[in-house]
Each structure stands twice: as C-alpha cells, then as structure tokens.
Amino acid sequence: MVKQMTKAKPSHDEEAFPERLVHMYFSFAPAKILSTALQLKIFSHIAAGADTAQAVAKAARTGERGTRMVLDALTALNLLVKRGGKYRLTPTASRYLVRESADYFGSMLEHDALWDAWAPLASIVRTGRPYRKVEQQKKAEKFFPALVRSLHIMNRGPANSVARLLGAGTTHHGLQVLDVACGSGVWGIAVAEADRTAHIVAQDFPGVLATTRQYVRRHKVKTQFDYLPGDLKSVNFGAGRFDVALLGNIVHSEGERSSRQLFKRLHRAMKPGGRVAIIDMIPNDQRSGPPFPIFFALNMLTNTTEGDTYTMAEYKQWLTAAGFHRVRAAPIGSHSPVIIATRV
C-alpha cells in the first residue's frame, strides 16, 4: 500500500511573502511623493504660513484634492505633523526641505534625473548602454552642480571626520592637498578649516568649479584655494607635489580602467609618504551588501560608461599595483568607510 504524501503547511513568513513583494514593488512611492512635494515647494509654502490643504493648494497653484493627498502622505512619512486638519513642518523638514534654508538638501531630489535614468533599466541591462554618461564634460557640467549642493550638506560631517583622520591641523600642518573632481569642494574645505595653513588645489571641469568657488567663499577659505580646471583623465597633476589627494565619490563613476590609471598618476603626484583618501560606496567582498553600495552599482550602470562600486579587496589590489602601501579603512559616519593608502 502506497503511503499518501501530505503537503507541508506553508509557514507564516511564506504566506506573507506576496504582501512583502507588493510593498517592495510600491517602494517607489515615498521617493516620488518627496520629489513632487519639493517640485511644488510644499515645504516652503508651509514654512511661509500655509497650514491647510486649501492654503497650500492656493500657494502652490495646485488642485486641493491632490494637495491634501500629498500632505497626508508626507505626514505618514513623518515629514509633517497634522492636527485638526492643519499641517506643520517637523524640525528636520524645516531644516533640510525648505528651499530657503541654508541647509536645504532638496536640490538633487527635486528633479527627475534619476527617475529618467532608471526607467529603462531592463533595456540597459540587456544592452549595457547607459541612459547617459555623466562622466563626460558636457553632461557633468549640467548634472553635477545641482547634485553637489545636496551632497555638500550630507558630506560635511564625514568630511570633517576624514580631515581628522588625516591629522589636519593637529599632527599635520600646512598640508598640500589635491581635491580630485572636487564638486562643491566639501572634502577639501574640511581640511582647510581644520588646518588654516593648508593649501588646496581643487580640480574639476570648469563648469563645476563655478559651484566650488561659491562654497569656498561661503566657508571663508578662499585664500587657501587654487583651481585646476580640466578632465581628471588627462589634467596634469604634477610630480612630488602633494601630501594628500582626496577622491570623494569619484571612483564609482570612472570605472576600473580609468581609476587604476588615475591611481598611478596620483602616485606620481604625491610626495614620499603622501596619502590618498578615497571616499566611495564600498560593498563587502561577496557583493552581498550593504544594500546602498549594491544598489548604487546599478545607478552607475544607468549613468556611466564603465562605472561600478568596488570592494575593499579590489581597492587594495589596485592601490598596491600603483605603488601605494598601508592600505586601510576607517569609519567616517557614512554609508562606507574612507580608504587611506600611503605612497612608498
């Protein structure tokens, strides 16, 4: 007699998995709600005194029904507080999401650039051809000025940590620093503020350096800065000139080939004992996490020709091959540690 097989009862986690998939698929909603609110200046309108859906709709010139839905969604996201049909900003929203704030973070969030690039992801994976190539000068000078305004706010704390790790103003004074593809200059500015005798050479495309100069003036370190316009792939860094080279979120957009060439040129540009500090998204050696560096690799697939995110093991191999040694990682209060390597 054949014994009848009984099917195992699904676990609670297995039963709940379809709902988890729905939530995963719908996870685009918070990002789109936030960017819509920034495009419509909703946080600024509330800061100016519009505290009901009707008042915000009038100020934003939007429909009241949709405005109320967005306001309620922002409340659910803990960006607004709602009581008795009236809305007010949370302290963090007031600081970072009101366009008039000195710490406004919304510059890179109020545009649809990333949405546009990620929309054809399946096609990009099939062909390997990116939606755009932000590492090229024309694209970079259009794309990065808005982006770096937000990144400057986010990276101020990590930049100060990097400056301390480099001993700026404490164990090392008068540092000669090269800030490669500097963007807002946030990494070099932190060194300049910590060491008032430091000198920073800020390198980037001419159209991006206009933004750098604004931040250098704002931080009152103008006399400590010079500028080196050009493409990091070909600009002349000189030889034996610098104590420190800063690469703040650069390698991921360049790709392996360009980055390995860059490391060799930086080795030549450094004084003996000089150090290169690399700040970037670093996945673990198995590329199984953390999520943000893993996801960001796909962001490079959509936005660059050869970009990717790279592991600590890969950085050690490339830096050693370029002539650096004592390659180490140190936490800086960000998504990934800083990598510091020393010229032999």
Number of strands: 9
Structural class assignment: alpha/beta
What is the average of the pLDDT values?
A: 95
What is the third-level CATH name, the topology of the largest domain? Rossmann fold
Overall radius of gyration: 24 Å
CATH superfamily of the largest domain: Vaccinia Virus protein VP39
Which band does the percent of strand residues land in?
Answer: 15-25%
Total helical segments:
14
Count of discrete domains? 2
CATH class of the largest domain: Alpha Beta
What is the terminal separation in angstroms?
78 Å
Which CATH architecture of the largest domain would you pick?
A: 3-Layer(aba) Sandwich
Shape: globular
Low-confidence stretches: none
List the helices and strands in order: HHHHHEEHHHHEHEHEEHEHHEE
From the structure above, extract its key features:
344 residues; alpha/beta; Rossmann fold; 2 domains; seven-stranded mixed sheet; two-stranded antiparallel sheet; 16% strand
Architecture overview:
The protein is α/β, with parallel strands linked by helices and 344 residues long. The chain has two domains: 12-110, Arc Repressor Mutant, subunit A (Orthogonal Bundle); 137-343, Rossmann fold (3-Layer(aba) Sandwich). It contains 14 helices and nine strands. The chain has helices at residues 12-25, 28-39, 42-47, 53-60, 64-76, 91-96, 113-118, 121-127, 137-165, 186-194, 206-218, 251-269, 291-303, 312-322, and strands at residues 80-83, 86-89, 176-180, 199-204, 225-229, 242-248, 270-279, 324-330, 338-343. The protein has a seven-stranded mixed β-sheet with strand order 5-4-3-6-7-9-8, sandwiched between helices. Strands 1-2 form a two-stranded antiparallel sheet. Strand 6 (242-248), helix 12 (251-269) and strand 7 (270-279) form a beta-alpha-beta unit. Helix 2 (28-39) packs across helix 5, helix 4 (53-60) packs across helix 5 and helix 9 packs parallel to helix 10 (186-194). The relative contact order is 0.09. The model has no long low-confidence stretch (mean pLDDT 95).
